[in-house]
Write a structure and sequence with these properties.
Helix content is 37%, strand content 24%. It is α+β, with helices and mostly antiparallel strands and 230 residues long.
């Protein structure tokens, strides 16, 4: 958005250069017409061919000519029209590049920008097998000062080669967490014949929201409290 004033200034400069260019063209045209008119007036002067005579009617020889030319000399000056044209072309090109860049930036921001939380905390998690269905449940917390976007929990089951062999997804309830709030999640992954490793992620649409695993810290805190008798 900060490029808009620059584009406006460049547009004004283009208009000013165009006006100046038109003025220069008009001025050159007027000068050319003035030179032609002056030359025509000099050629049509009736005194140019009138013989000189005294009162007795005897003609006297004309005064010697010193090579006076009736042609109006042209002004020797360098035209600035090419310079104005080049400057206008440069300004127009810069404006076009700025506008294209702003449009691309706007489209990229629309595709990338999503209301994402900085992170959430995974407080607890466990799993169970019901036939060939893996059930993963747990508790998450929003430690930030802003509400999260709508979140879903995704569980991916990995095979022996590390590739994903099964996947399940379920929205959190509630899907959006207010600051400091907690909520449970439960994801069922069907057709898991040999449950092995799995991983959990939290997403907003197609965008992954980072989470911090607090389970180990909470376990150590709980053990310390038990040791102290709290």
């Amino acid at each position: 958005m900060s490029l808009i004033p620059l584009v406006v200034v460049l547009s004004i400069a283009v208009v000013a250069l165009a006006i100046a260019l038109l003025y220069r063209v008009r001025l050159e045209h007027q000068r050319s017409e003035a030179r032609v008119a002056a030359l025509a007036a000099a050629l049509d002067d009736p005194l140019r061919d009138t013989p000189w005579a005294d009162e007795t009617g005897v003609s006297e020889p004309p005064a010697p000519s010193y090579g006076v030319s009736l042609t109006v000399p042209e002004e020797v000056h360098s035209s600035r029209i090419p310079a104005f044209a080049i400057a206008a072309l440069v300004v127009l090109s810069a404006s076009a590049l700025l506008i294209v860049g702003m449009n691309k930036g706007g489209r990229s921001s629309r595709h990338v920008a999503v209301p994402a939380a900085s992170s959430i905390e995974l407080v607890s998690m466990r799993h169970a097998l019901d036939g060939e269905t893996l059930i993963v449940s747990g508790l998450v917390r929003n430690p930030t000062t802003t509400a999260t976007p709508s979140l879903s929990a995704v569980v991916s089951v990995l095979g022996r080669d590390g590739q994903i062999v099964a996947r399940g997804e379920s929205p959190l309830d509630p899907a959006m967490l207010d600051p400091g709030k907690e909520t449970n999640f439960r994801v069922s992954v069907p057709r898991v014949a040999e449950p092995g490793r799995y991983r959990v992620a939290f997403v907003n649409g197609s965008h992954i929201v980072p989470h911090v695993d607090r389970r180990a810290e909470l376990s150590r805190t709980a053990l310390a409290n038990d040791a102290r008798g709290n």
